[in-house]
Amino acid sequence: MIAAVFEGFEIHLNPREARSATHQGQCDADVAALLAKPSIARQFDAISPDAIRRELAGYGAWDDKDLLDDAANRARILWLAAHDIVDAIGHQD
User: For site-directed labelling of 4, which of 56, 69, 86, 91 has its Cα 20 to 30 A away?
Assistant: First the structure.
């Protein structure tokens, strides 16, 4: 497992999981499948929606109204975590 580290929390994925959510094209279904995995759902149960919202707000890609959707925020931060992890793996190869 490799961690994507954010302000106040981490998300752990294995390389295969991270790569599954970072391919070209739409990744929404793949991110949703990851969110449905018990090991990943448990991680999100331990992270407050406000912590995710604050982290995403720092990216400037979503406005306050967008960030009210906690389910969408989980998908957004998981997608970002997957990219961070794939990026880290690439530097280790």
Answer: 69
Per-residue pLDDT of the chain (93 residues; tens, 9 = 90+): 999 999 999 999 999 999 999 999 999 999 999 999 999 999 999 999 999 999 999 999 999 999 999 999 999 999 999 999 999 988 554
CB 74: neighbour CB atoms within 10 A? Answer: 22
Claim: this prediction has a pTM higher than 0.85: yes
Residue 54: how many other CB atoms lie within 10 Å: 14
What's the token pair of residue 91?
A: 């530097």
Q: Please state the domain extents for the chain.
A: 2-92
